[in-house]
Amino acid sequence: MHLTVGDDGLARPVWAATDPLLRDYYDTEWGMPVRDERGLFERLSLEAFQSGLSWATILRKRPAFRAAFAGFDPDAVARFGDDDVARLMGDAGIVRNRRKIDATIGNARATVRLRDDGGLAALIWSFQPASTPMPRSFADVPTSSPESVALSKELKRRGFAHVGPTTMFALMEAVGIVDTHLIGSHRRGSSGVWAADGSRAEAA
Question: Label partner for 47 (CA 20 to 30 A): which of 95, 97, 137, 175?
Answer without folding.
Answer: 137
